[in-house]
Design brief:
The protein is of the alpha/beta class and about 375 residues long. The protein has 14 helices and twelve strands. It binds 6-O-phosphono-alpha-D-glucopyranose (G6P). The site of 6-O-phosphono-alpha-D-glucopyranose has 16 residues, from helix 4. Catalyzes the first step in hexosamine metabolism, converting fructose-6P into glucosamine-6P using glutamine as a nitrogen source.
Length: about 375
């Protein structure tokens, strides 16, 4: 086992640090930015039909569902097709309206989650076309779908998903870009520009990982907190949910993720000097609005930990702690902003003496409903 951990103390830390490589592996042979080419071989036979989809329904559980939420923003922005993101466990039991012009994308690291598999069977019986985004080759979900793309992140052992999440987002990003280009909702120049930016993401993840020692110091300060709030908007809203889930899963600290603007409809009542609030406040279209949310927390004496874009000065002047990530296209930010949140949950869990790789009550794959 020590050899499998490659010198790391836990699989989770190894998997967090593997992300520059796992994302590159996921894009290898598919993305060729220099020549403006993006090919997802697994979808080849279905691309014409996919272009004319009425609607995309994404179904998944847990962390994979969060990747699905990021994909909702991606597909709607680039391909202009309406998207719904469904918990598989809800979708399968509510007699959903599905037609033959619907495309269902099922996301699953293990490819064995019972609820996701059942949601696929239901959608299939109503005539929809089903794509799979799985990590485990030959898994039940990969076999049950019409077509799909593997994430090629390599085996993920830690129960809390990290590298599978960023690989899922990488695949879904490539799908959305390819679809947008083919539909003409994405211009050639924008497409090529985004392909180039995407190719540079593994290098930027490498840079984001360097915040680790700063993250560790923050973990030391807040490791005994009883609650955490995670806030983000737009592409960073699903990242807030994922950051909170990571902390809950492995450190057993209660954490909630919320869209920052919804804070005033409830969570703001919880804020006092005991409450750490993690803001994802990168330079994007909702930046100014997030800054005013930070002010609201500060006015109530909440402790502010902010993930910001390199060089940010405004949030730095307000927050108790900042963690910098490199600048990138707004749509690709989740691949970077989730990194310090993974590290934060990891360090807090280690400091609290928790079993990081095998947290209590959780399983790597849930094959029962
Ligand atoms: C379990 C795991 C999570 C995972 C979820 C969905 O709850 O502990 O890490 O996100 O199942 O699993 P899947 O394999 O379908 O992505």
């Amino acid at each position: 086992e020590a050899i499998e951990k490659g010198g790391y103390e836990h699989f989770m830390l190894k998997e967090i640090n593997e992300q520059p490589r796992s994302i590159a592996d996921c894009m290898r042979g598919r993305l060729d930015a220099k020549n403006g080419r993006l090919i997802l071989g697994g979808l080849r036979d279905y691309m014409n039909k996919f272009q004319n989809a009425d609607r995309i329904i994404i179904t998944a559980c847990g962390t994979s569902w969060h990747a699905g939420l990021v994909a909702e923003y991606l597909f709607e922005e680039f391909a202009r097709i309406p998207v719904e993101v469904e918990y598989a466990s809800e979708f399968r039991y509510r007699n959903p309206v599905i037609s033959e012009k619907d495309f269902v994308i099922a996301i699953s690291q293990s490819g064995e989650t019972a609820d996701t598999l059942a949601a696929i069977e239901l959608a299939k019986s109503k005539g929809a076309t089903i794509f799979g985004v799985c990590n485990v080759v030959g898994s039940s979900i990969a076999r049950a779908t019409h077509a799909g793309c593997y994430t090629h992140a390599g085996p993920e052992i830690g129960v809390a998903s990290t590298k599978a999440f960023t690989a899922q987002i990488s695949v879904l990003t490539m799908m959305a870009l390819m679809l947008g280009y083919q539909r003409g909702t994405l211009t050639e120049s924008k497409y090529v520009q985004l392909l180039n930016e995407l190719e540079g993401i593994p290098g930027k993840v490498e840079k984001a990982l360097k915040m680790n020692s700063n993250v560790e110091k923050i973990a030391e300060i807040y490791k005994d907190s009883r609650n955490f709030l995670y806030l983000g908007r737009g592409y960073n809203f699903p990242v807030a949910l994922e950051g909170a889930l990571k902390l809950k899963e492995i450190s057993y600290i209660h954490a909630e993720g919320y869209p920052a603007a919804e804070m005033k409809h409830g969570p703001i009542a919880l804020i006092d000097e005991e409450m750490p609030v993690v803001f994802i406040a990168t330079k994007d279209t909702s930046y100014e609005k997030v800054v005013s949310n930070i002010q609201e927390v500060k006015a109530r004496k909440g402790k502010i930990i902010a993930v910001v874009t390199e060089g940010d000065t405004v949030v730095r002047g307000m927050a108790d702690h900042v963690l910098e990530i490199p600048d990138t296209a707004e749509a690709f930010v989740p691949l970077l902003s989730v990194i310090p949140l993974q590290q934060l949950s990891y360090h807090i869990a280690v400091m609290r003496g928790c079993n990081v790789d095998q947290p209590r009550n959780l399983a790597k794959s849930v094959t029962v409903e």
